[in-house]
Amino acid sequence: MALLDALKFARVSGLSMPALGRDVLSGFIGAMVQIAYCISFSALIFQDFISAGFPLGLAALLMGTVITGIVVAVTTTLSPATGGPDTPAVAVLSVLAGSIAETLSASGVNSDVIVVNALITITIATVISGIFLYGLGALRFGQWLRFVPYPVVAGFLAGSAVLMITGGA
Fold first, then answer.
1. Which string of b and e fits 134-169 if b means at least 16 CB within 10 Å?
2. Structure pTM?
3. Which residue in 25, 41, 141, 166 has the most C-beta neighbors within 10 A?
4. Which of 62, 68, 91, 64 has the alpha carbon at shortest distance from 81?
């Protein structure tokens, strides 16, 4: 029934069926890519001492991706924009979670408590960076990013790549 309503809406609003089909197909492909990212990033973050937290971490990543995707879809003016986990951020968060897990494991803490602490730390880091980035956008400081030199950006991405490679080994 919902599909029929969507088709009626498409006809009334002036959308063509081929355009609607392309949009649905691209949305499906984008969702599959985001799911693959969530699985691989969860495997990267939740390894060694916190490997028992993989299912919970995967669920958190998937839920965050869905919420981010909905917010981006509703609020963006750039139509091909998507939302989800990003490689450099996940590389840093995997190092953060690993160091927390190693420290707590050396103290003899239960693995469930280690997983919860890692998830709380990742959540706090995400909220802080989100507030910071929102503040930059609200104050219109995005224009200053044009002046970040190319070697700085390349160095940051290279450092993220090194963290991803060493974390995946």
1. eeeeeeeeeeeeeeeeeeeeeeeeeebeebbeebee
2. 0.75
3. 41
4. 68
